[in-house]
Amino acid sequence: MTRRALILIDLQNDYFPEGRFPLENIDAAAANAARLLDAARAGGDLVVHVRHEFASADAPFFAPGSEGATINTAVEPGDGETVVLKHAVNAFRGTDLKDVLDRNGVSDVTIAGAMSHMCVEAAARAAADYGYTTTVVHDAVATRDLNFNDTTIPAAQVHAASMAALGFAYATLRSTDEYLTAESPAA
Known about the structure:
The chain is an alpha/beta fold. It has a single domain (4-183), classed as Isochorismatase-like (Rossmann fold, 3-Layer(aba) Sandwich). Helix content is 33%, strand content 24%. It has five helices and eight strands; from the N terminus they run βαββαβαβββαβα. The strands form two sheets. The chain has a six-stranded parallel sheet with strand order 3-2-1-4-5-8. Strands 6-7 form a two-stranded antiparallel ribbon. α3 (116-129) runs parallel beside α4 (155-169). Keywords: Hydrolase. Residues 5-156 form the Isochorismatase-like domain. This is Nicotinamidase-related amidase. It comes from Pseudochelatococcus lubricantis.
């Protein structure tokens, strides 16, 4: 029997417009993640919130105990929902995420959150490597511009490249609407 988990990664205040490390389109991504969260709760899926904190109080963002490291109210954890605290890019590294999924009989994971090219990509690749059927909801994910060799790569291109790489071999990619339509009981 298929058991699904929704994993929401790093949708924390520092990534929002008033935070210390804002991402492009984070409000839209969080709104879509909230729709996924509502559907997961209604469908009885396991919900796992992943929250990143750096080790040092002088971190550029996600400082321990800071308001910026708090999960945004758009997707705040509900009673009984698991929150995994991580200190690395990959949500599986040094955490009990895999144990939580396995203990709950999860075979399929759906991933949303931030950032496309970092924590979302790392978690999706790890989930696939661990044998979970992996879906990334691409419009419930956000990132920011990057710079390489004095060239600015716009966030939309960073996101597209990350999603293309994941879609090639690691995950099924869906929009929020596609995902919710495909996963609804009437579908």
